[in-house]
Amino acid sequence: MNLFKGLTGAVGAVLLLLPQVVMADTLDTGDTAWILTSTALVLFMTLPGLALFYGGLVRAKNVLSVLMQCFVIACVITIVWVVYGYSMSFSDGGSMNAWVGGLGNVFLGEVARGSMSGTIPETVFVMFQMTFAIITPALIIGGFAERMKFSSMLLFSVFWVTVVYFPVCHWVWGGGWLAEKGILDFAGGMVVHITAGVGAIVAAVVMGSRKGFPTTPMMPHNMTMTVTGAAMLWVGWFGFNAGSALAANGDAGMAMLVTHISASCGAFTWAVMEWIKHGKPSALGTVTGMVAGLGTITPASGFVGPMGALVIGISAGVVCFYATGFIKQKLKIDDSLDVFPVHGVGGILGTLMAGIFVSAGLGGAGLAEGMTMSSQLGVQLTGIVAVVVWTAVATFVILKVVDAITGLRVSDEDEIQGLDISQHDERGYIL
Fold it and tell me: DSSP characters for 28-57?
């Protein structure tokens, strides 16, 4: 009898442990801790990183308007993401699934405390992806800085993420048609940087130049602020790229390593290019090169090795350097804070190079079964063209709609006075 009771107790103890065993096989606390950290890092990129980076680049009379735009975009896009954005991006869209997710998960109705996404809670995945949806329209404000109404910026941001960001996110990461083709975009070369860059330059063209561009110098008012923001972006980008592994594993480690390598190469290359061309390297050029290196490695970060990162970073420094001069000096387009030549061109370059340096022979993770380098490049090019065309057309239409509703630009008098006073009745500095 005692033996029977002992065996019964032992079996009961094992059965009590079964739920924990199942949970241990599903929930990985290390992965969860890393993605929680990465989520904070990516939000840190927008607030305060991008806000300070952009804020220092504009003139003193507009610094608060840029800070305010970044801050409020974080608030508004959070609401939109919860209401329908996450559902449109990552839900099953039924017969339309190739193009957009469905609305079966509006208000996060299917996301419970115990819901899982791989080895992490779905709540963590929702929050992590939300930070990407926040920073993308925040990047675009650099294209129309110092001249768009605050109300128009809000309408544009909501319409734009709905029509551009959520569908493209679904195409690439949510099981849409580009995902089915085997597109390589580890952390947002297309989803974030190409869409933001194209959206910014379309906005710059539609709205027209700032008063005085290009004859009047419009220098950054506070480079200390800009360099501080850039440093925050560099650190936060580790969560952006390495966090996109969605696990604390070798892919995350390699993504972090190649991200740092590319940022360093981009910054140093840009500084050298300026040194050669102008006789002196500048802090502005160096931090811009860093951002170019980061944006360019983003789509490739989980697929390439250190050698690929060196090439990608150096290429970003050279190509984005010349693209910046071409857009403003040759085409005379007032993309105020160089969003397209840095993020758009960098995203395109990095997406293409991901298809090359993913090759195991070049130190990458290796091509998917059945893929050759030429076929992978074909998929990458298809994705780039589709995203550029869709973003450009949709952004143009959205801008025209917003213009019809509220008007896009502030008045000439308000622009001369500065958006801090005209839009918010505040000053960044006591003059």
Answer: -HHHHHHHHHHHHHHHHIIIIIIHHHHHHH
